[in-house]
Amino acid sequence: MQAIQIEQEGGPEVLQLTTLPKPTAGPGELVVRNHYSGVNFIDTYFREGVYKLPLPHQLGAEAAGEVVEVGEGIEGFAVGDAVAYLGTQNTYAQYSIAALNKTFKIDPAVLSYDVAAAILLQGLTAHTLVTRAYEVKQGDWILVQAGAGGTGRLIIQMAKHLGANVIATVSSTEKAQVARAAGADHVILYSEESVPESVKNIVPEGVHAVFDGVGKSTFEGSIESLRRLGSMVSFGNASGTVPPFKVLDLAPKNLTLLRPQLYGYIATEEERQRHIGELMDLIGQDKLDVHIFKTYKLDEVAQAHIDLQGRKTTGKLVIKID
Ligand code: NDP
Question: How close is the Cα of 148 to the center of ligand 1, in Å?
Fold first, then answer.
């Protein structure tokens, strides 16, 4: 089968289209023929070595397709089932092993394969962030950094659905339109304005919570933008990892600081059912607009990474495989 593999950490050029043996299902595993894979910022961390993988390794964190093989001891899945699943950096490929506890059945007539591959990881991330990391409430003021991005757009929509006032940051006027269309009440061009100053002009007390997936370049401004008892949810490193932070700096405003990851919120079956169920309900009720920025081919994954890291994209990037 065709798959993207890296033999060393590095720039987009290390993403090589390779022929590999088609995987076979071990006990408790499924093999899925992938139609679409999502592209996520986390894939670039693994490619660059910010997060580590044994090498050589495939890449890709989510996909949607059809089950083609069912391992021993599997109940509830059969060959031919349409599924979306969270992979283990193995979904930029024609076939992948999918773990039972990270695989969800879909109805392609309701949720097409491309949208399923686009929504799973970022949708679950956004949903767990606004319901668990900081439980967004009616009337809250929320700041979403990089609001036109894949995860940012979904956080804006979910926070608005929960009744919050949303301020989003973006790097360009085109992206400002995307954030506004997603529901942001106010947009700050963080390439030109000071975020804490602009936030204070909008809401002088500061915001109740910040969702910050940008990391290094925005962390301080996020902390400054919070009101007393505010929550800083730092969930990513698009601009680099956040440098060491003095816990004492939380004291003046009695702040809460969290650095969550999706898998820590969907560790149990009950958690998975809750979040996938509520995410699918939002999609079913047309409460979430999933915006696919561009569909790339499997041999164009490097370009997808260049575009994502080059801040050229809004919404979601997907790879069409089959
Ligand atoms: P996005 O589509 O949001 O792309 C990243 C955006 O970050 C860019 O579009 C850009 O928007 C902004 N950005 C700011 N500074 C930089 C920079 N120096 N280089 C590149 N981009 C920059 O990506 P994702 O939605 O896939 O991911 C967003 C964040 O969420 C990432 O940090 C990711 O790791 C994190 N994440 C964390 C998860 C978790 O479990 N903790 C799960 C999923 C995602 P602009 O041009 O407007 O500045």
Answer: 9
Residue closest via CA to ligand 1's atom 41 equals 261
Site to substitute for ligand 1 among 48, 151, 212, 314, most atoms within 8 A of C-beta: 151
Does the residue 156 lie in any domain? yes
**Exposure letters 32-59 (e unless 16+ CB within 10 A, then b):** bbbbbbbbbbbbbbbbbeeeebeeebbb
Closest Cα to residue 62, out of 104, 22, 24, 28?
Answer: 104
Instruction: Assign residue 102 the CATH number of its domain.
Output: 3.90.180.10
* Tally of structural domains, the chain: 2
User: Do both 249 and 309 map to the same domain?
Assistant: no
* Ligand 1 contact, 171 CB (< 6 A): yes
Which tens digit of pLDDT belongs to each residue from 274-321? 999 999 999 999 999 999 999 999 999 999 999 999 999 999 999 999
Nearest C-alpha to atom 32 of ligand 1 is from which residue?
Answer: 236
Specify the residue with its C-alpha closest to ligand 1, atom 19.
239
Asked if residue 143 lies in contact with residue 207, where contact means CB atoms within 8 angstroms, the answer is yes
216, 245, 263 - which closes a domain: 263
User: Does a structural domain hold residue 285?
Assistant: no
Look at residue 262 and tell me whether its pLDDT is greater than 90: yes
CATH number of the domain enclosing 239: 3.40.50.720
